[in-house]
Design brief:
By secondary structure, this protein is an alpha+beta fold. It has a single domain, classed as Glutaredoxin (3-Layer(aba) Sandwich). The chain contains 4 helices and 4 strands, in the order αβαβαββα. A two-stranded parallel ribbon has the order 1-2. Strands 3-4 form a two-stranded antiparallel ribbon. The longest helix is centred in the middle third of the chain and has 15 residues. The mean pLDDT is 77.
């Protein structure tokens, strides 16, 4: 599973080509808000974070069964690639390029 630092690099590389990253935080916010906030700040994450009921709606829509979970979703909201695993991490550039039509 790619880690947040990997996603930060991918965002920098592909944001001008149409890649947008959205974090979906489905853990209990009341007990872990400071951890989430500190992680976002320390890594310089600038992409949107969905929390609360919106996060649960997204996790239900895309059938997120575990965390962390990485999926590639098109601009139209359709799922392009589900459950990107550690083995696929090295191919993530290729998966993104194909999704962006590059």
């Amino acid at each position: 599973m790619p880690v947040l630092r990997d996603l930060k690099e991918l965002e920098t590389k592909y944001k001008d080509k149409g890649l947008a990253i959205v974090g979906v935080y489905i853990d209990r916010l009341d007990t872990k808000y400071n951890t989430l906030h500190n992680t976002i700040d320390s890594l310089g994450i600038t992409w949107a974070q969905v929390v609360g009921s919106g996060a649960f709606d997204a996790s239900n829509r895309y059938r997120i069964k575990y965390i962390p979970h990485l999926a590639l979703i098109g601009k139209d909201g359709k799922l392009i690639h589900r459950e990107i695993s550690l083995q696929q991490k090295n191919n993530l550039d290729t998966i993104i390029q194909e999704a962006l039509g590059n």
